[in-house]
Structure of Hypp188 protein:
Amino acid sequence: MATVSMSGASLRNKNFLGAIQQAGNPTMYPLPAEPARFVAGKSLATTPVDELNRRIRELCGTDPRLLLTMAKMEEDDRQSWVRLAHFMILLANEQHQEPNHTAFKVPPVPLGETDGTDSPGRTDSPGRTGRTDNPGGTDGTEYRGLRVQPGL
């Protein structure tokens, strides 16, 4: 069954670079037999390109043609539009938070106690582990597999 864009899901003012990277790498991230959809019952494959353009722009607030260029995809290739829409919908749904719902529940650690890891710090922000598995340094944090240096 195809994933459908959640009502209220948005990527405006959010980092959606991961979706662009996935869309631009069909070998590593192949489309499923049934790609995600903006509307239940309406396949991206049958959605006109001008509607895909409008819906992606509404979802992220950015010109989809620019996103296709960033992903090194061809603007005149329909499959490029379908791939971009699919991965943008998935990320928007993942980042969407219903009222009183947290996608990641991280129990707070009281001051002076540790959580049992060798982490240099811990945050209660969703998706942040506060630890690095990089033996080269302990002054950064890791966010979804990306190493973040303080002050950058």
Notes: The first helix runs from residue 17 to 23. The longest strand covers residues 141-143. The CA atoms of residues 59 and 140 lie 31 Å apart.
